[in-house]
Amino acid sequence: MRGVTITDSKNNFLKVDLVDILQLLGSQAENSEWEISDVECVGSAADALHKLSDSKTRVPGHTLLQMAAHLTQVIDGEFIGCGEGEKQPWIIVRAVDSSAYDVQSEDEDVLAQIRCRFKEVTDFHS
After folding, report:
1. Helix or strand run (H / E) with residue 112
2. CA–CA gap between residue 79 and residue 102 (Å, rounded)
3. Of 50, 51, 38, which is closest to residue 92 (Cα–Cα)?
4. pTM value?
5. Residues 102-126: pLDDT tens digits?
6. Is 98 helix (H, G, I), strand (E, B) or coil?
7. Radius of gyration, CA atoms only, the chain
8. What proportion of the chain, given as a percentage, has pLDDT over 90?
9. Tens digit of pLDDT for each residue in 40-60?
10. CB neighbour class for 22 (10 Å; exposed up to 12, middle 13-18, buried from 19)
11. Helix 61-68 × helix 46-55 angle, to 10°
């Protein structure tokens, strides 16, 4: 999968969070099922997201979007988006130590949207 790393920051703090990426993806994110793992986060939805991460169950996109809107910060975590009933992901979003987000997808339009929306974006190949 091809990917990008987002490192938009202000005063040495990452100014991008999971909710920003999910909102950019719009209905694609909402209509997906998400596998969540290795999450470390803070905010009013943090406990619920930690439980989902531990349970390894798929979460509907609209649920993840609602939870992400109630997080102050996602420090670490992996969010794998799959089409409903699909096994192969169309996107993988990783929060990396409060310093970046890695986004991988075979969908070049998704990566192009991210490049246009965020300022500090670099490409990588996995």
Report:
1. helix 108-117
2. 10
3. 38
4. 0.95
5. 999 999 999 999 999 999 999 998 7
6. coil
7. 13
8. 91
9. 999 999 999 999 999 988 999
10. buried
11. 140
